[in-house]
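Contributing new records

If you add data, match the layout below exactly. Sequence lines come first and carry their own label; structure lines follow with theirs. Keep one chain per record. Anything else will be rejected by the validation script.
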Amino acid sequence: MRSPEPNVPRDSEDRWREAVLTAGLAVFDWDIPGRRIYRSPEMLATWDYPEGPNEAVDAARSVIHPDDFPDFWARMTELQGGTVERAILEMRMRQRDGAWRWVRWRARIASRGPDGRPARVVGTVNDIHELWKGRDLARESQMRLQGIVDSAMDAIISIDDNQRITLFNRAAERIFGYEPLEVLGQPLEMLIPGRFHGEHHRHVEQFGRTGVSSRPMMAQRIVTALRKSGEEFPIDASISQNEIRGHRFFTVILRDVSVRERTRRELAQAREDLRELSVASRTAREQENSRISRELHDELGQNLTSLKMDLAWLEANTPREDAKFLQTLSAMRAVLDSTVAATRRISADLRPLMLDDLGLAAAMEWLAEETSRRHGFRVELAVDEASANLAEPLASQVYRIVQESLTNAGRHAAARNVRVALRTIGREVHLDVEDDGRGLGPEDLRKKGSFGLVGIRERVYILAGSVEIRGDAGQGTVIHVRLPIPPAEGGAP
């Protein structure tokens, strides 16, 4: 379709108008007194203006979207009345093919008449449809992002490089108790207890200088936040940063962990109570074992010794010719000797009296000899001077750990040699038990019904120590225990 010819006047006084209208742009020139609008060929070729001469209102109404025409005519009326010098408007216009496209319309007063009223208005029309499509996509993306942010279960807060709040989602409203209008543009410090303001400000600045995109905040410190009500509460938070048009923005994603922290503290307290109960229970058990062991050793042992003396007297005063009676006495002596040995063994198993009478080193030496005799392996024992006389309950627990370790080496490891080393380092007792047996596999550590290693861990736990058990198959087993020495053990810490 041939572009309509521009209705350009030919008189000399309108040469400037002709130059503008033939400049290759979508340009218009409104003759207000003549109630005519002159349009460039580009305007007429692109937009669906009616053919032939027409007045400004009629032509504009035919090509401008009905929803946008009131705004357009309001701007034109302001220019015509001289209340504004310039006007700009984004609106929809119909192309020759019938499609509506967004344009940016600009106009200004070009001249005034003798009475000072506007006589001519000139302007341009630029197609910005693609820009509007981009805006729509950006707006849709922003709405989607806002929906995701607002539906998030965790609080999301963004701040600018001055640490002023720029985003505050619904979860943040619920956690902190603020409406968005109360916090947007405000410093982040309003959500942090006053005593942490300086430290937190430095932390964010340092994070900005690192160039790291994100990291958890609780990895470095416990983060405490402040509700609108003035209540402080712990949060689990991570911070990220990005740069937009030369400005740095930080985003914090946080979760109220008040319930979790309260549960953790209650669980820790319950564990501590259980540990103290276990210490008291084991101490009471050791005391009871000590009492029974001493009664077996002293009372029963003395009675058995008296019986042996009486039996020896009977043997000495029995005629040699009474062989049957002498044989019965010999059998009784054998049973009595066996009973004495069993009594001593049971007493020692309950609690070796030398642990109380001679100290830990002597008790461990007896234990090493007795275990070697029972299981047939060699025990190398090394106890330093500082560890030789540990006080209760530490001494009893160390003894029991060594006892259990040697029993495991004899029953399960098939060891030939075992090394036991006990030494004091600073305010800790270090115990190492190493054997050359078959070692440990993962299944050994998880074996049901086997409580040897579990018992060792439990004894270490109730003394607030640590234990490491390792050993590859065929490479032997190593048990390393570290136990803190109570303040009363070595005097003032």
